[in-house]
Amino acid sequence: MGLQGPKTAEWYRRADAALVNGVSSGFRYWGPDDTFVIQRGDGAHVEDMDGNRYIDYQLGFGPVILGHAHPAVSSAVAEAAASGTTFAMTSAREVEAAELFKQAVTWVDRLRFTNTGTEATMHAIRLARAVTGRELMLKFEGSYHGAHDYVLFSTAGSPAGTMGSRRSPVPYQTSSGIPEAIRSLVRTLPFNDLDAVERLLARDGHRIACVLVEPVMGNFFGLMPHDGYLEGLRRLCDDHGVVLIFDEVKTGFRIALGGAQEWFGVTPDLATFAKSMGNGFPVAAVAGREHVVGAWADGGVMQAGTYSGNGLSAAATAATIRELLSGEPLAAVDRAGKALMEGIRGICAEKGVPTQVLGTPSMFGIFFGDEAPRDFRDAGGHDEELYSKVVMGMISRGVLPCDDAREPWFISAAHGDAEVEQSLTAFDEALGEALG
Ligand SMILES: Cc1ncc(COP(=O)(O)O)c(C=O)c1O
Questions:
Q1: In angstroms, what is the span from residue 435 Cα to ligand 1's centroid?
Q2: Which end of the chain, N or C, is more open, meaning fewer C-beta atoms within 10 Å of its C-beta?
Q3: Are residues 99 and 233 located together in one domain of the fold?
């Protein structure tokens, strides 16, 4: 295909000589001719090494909620950098960031910062195991919770037909290098099937420490939970003494200021946050009710991190949450997202392409198929080839969603009317071209 101009291609050659496949995260690799090398981002745009500018719907896989290089965040970080950033003590910036976090996510009693979503889900699972004294965990097919061993089962990269039957699913291991023993501690089920959870908990509830769920499937088209599903998970976890963990790494500070808990009105025991809370700076959190996070205070449950709560991340978090608390950024995200979702639905209807636009305005996916999927097992109903052609057509017109349809389009407060209009025009033309 060749998405690289001459300078980008040269930079990619340099990248590949030093970084394996030219990337620092496997998901960024699009192949030797299509992997981008970026020189800058501003607002809703990124610019490659040839100076080609794109309207960015990846936003670093979700975090850049205010837009790239947001002035309030950049200046807070610059100021923090000038006063030392990493101490063997708690810093004032860290305290302010945690207080602002609690102002935004009101159900949380206390939290601890980590650096990545991976670290956050790892600690959340350990906490749940520690407070329950149980070893098993349940996650859902098609969900991604980071790159550590316990969660790399039946993620969105699992090929069709590898997960057993719906009634008796088999966890599909999505990476080599994970000890066989780990698999025996993980249970996987299709999303949106409360009966399946009920059956599992009736049988094994006394051995299950936690149910770990992405309330909206942020790694599978932004698929929403059916009405009553999250409420049902809450009830079943209460009945069986299981810790309910919301993985809000993508939904937190994005679908609403208070994340999925605010949007759906269902409160977990514990939740993991990252991405939009720091507008792209490396920060995450494990946050929850005192009966769970209090286990850290009681002692004997390990949580630590040299860079956790560091000055740069704390400053970025405080500045981002201060902006979000005004309500304006998420209102802008909502406006742009709604216009895009409606525009895409209209264009597809006009061209006679059966399409489901799933998710919320801040984070939505385009499923080219007759019926909305209920869970990850319905992925085969999506026309991947058509989507791929449309994305390539859009990229050539300066609009950059992820080439993988499962990864939602992410909207920032910097996506205004002009970006929406250019994106819809590009979508319309690219779809027309793809249909031939
Ligand atoms: C829902 C969810 N949880 C956890 C993670 C892992 O976060 P990180 O990449 O910061 O380790 C991701 C990453 O995309 C995610 O989407």
A1: 34
A2: C
A3: yes
